[in-house]
Amino acid sequence: MTIDQHIEELRAEARNAETVEGRRAIEAELELALAEREVIWAELDGRIDGEPPF
């Protein structure tokens, strides 16, 4: 599963969450996935270096 597929699944789960608590938990996971995707994109286009500095 790609990161984009995971994000879309989380969005669908958030829309269909049965409780506010469940929706908040899914939205928190969605935020992490979006941040992870941004890091992947930044590494791919050279904005950041994926290697540790040491």
SSE topology:
Layout: H1 3-15, H2 20-44
Helix pairs in contact: 1-2
Short description:
By secondary structure, this protein is an all-alpha fold.
Structure description:
This protein has 54 residues and is an all-alpha fold. The mean pLDDT is 94. The radius of gyration is 14 Å and the shape is elongated. The protein is 70% helix and 0% strand. Helix 1 (3-15) packs antiparallel against helix 2. The N and C termini lie far apart (31 Å). It is built from 2 helices and no strands.
Number of strands: 0
Q: Level of helix content? A: over 70%
Structural class: mainly alpha
Largest sheet: none
Which short descriptors sum up this protein?
54 residues, 2 helices, single chain, elongated, mainly alpha
